[in-house]
Amino acid sequence: MNQSIRGYTLTQWVGAGGMGEVYQAFHADTQRTVAIKLLSRVEQAERFRNEASVQASLRHPHIALVYEFFVEKGLWCLVLEYIEGPTIEQFIQKNGPLTEESAWKVLGQIASALEYLHSRGIVHRDLKAGNIKIARHGKAKLLDFGLARFANSPKLTHQGYLIGTASSMAPEQFSGQSSPASDCWALGVLLYEMLTGQSPFGGSTHSEISRRIQRGDYLAPRKLNPNLSKASERLIDKLLTVSPERRLTAKQVMEALRHPALLEATDWLGPVLKWWDRVKP
């Protein structure tokens, strides 16, 4: 593979997403290895441009950089930081669950990235294990801003069309609503998966997954990993809360990780509210 696009030589196919193909590429003049996302679905051009606009405005150690965006001979190209390493999803498939220490480290890094996004009025809307890579020294990097949007930007989704990955979507997203709290729900799903190796809201059909999510109905993570600390289980519980107003924010997650004792305190009201979420009509 030696195809060249505006000085970038495509060296290796990396994968495919909802909007196009991703390749590893090398730029001889800058001696830089990059990832290039090529749009394959022309009807997604406006969303592709939105991804470039949102991500290019960001500078955070745990968010992949955008270097360039251009259209070359009718081909839409997004040039991104190339991150060597597996996604969390790939890591779990190969190695099983992460250790609690490693999972907390990743969680803290991604919570930091979300707090940065949310403080700028940006919602990612597709946070999941497949969109986070683990680079050298365990450094996590958040990828794929194809569904991200500024709070005041126009919607690019048709009415009634769900966006995101069903198993990581917050209850309110099934009604077309999304907010920073929706990203924090996905953070809870991510932590559950990292610690157990399984999705909290698995199901054989989309409607079954949706029903379980909207009732907050998931198996206690300690039943899958008996060695989990009470703090980890409590943290998951406070993120996978059906009411967006009661979920921890990204900033609160970072604070809880710094002071785990805060999660050990007796919480009488939380279980009652969780029970009500599951039984209310």
From TrEMBL:
Designated name of the protein: Serine/threonine-protein kinase
Annotated SUPFAM superfamilies: Protein kinase-like (PK-like)
Keyword Nucleus: no
Binding residue positions for ATP: K37
Superkingdom field: Bacteria
Entry's Gene Ontology molecular function annotations: protein serine/threonine kinase activity
Keywords, alphabetical: ATP-binding, Kinase, Nucleotide-binding, Transferase
Enzyme Commission code(s) on record: 2.7.11.1
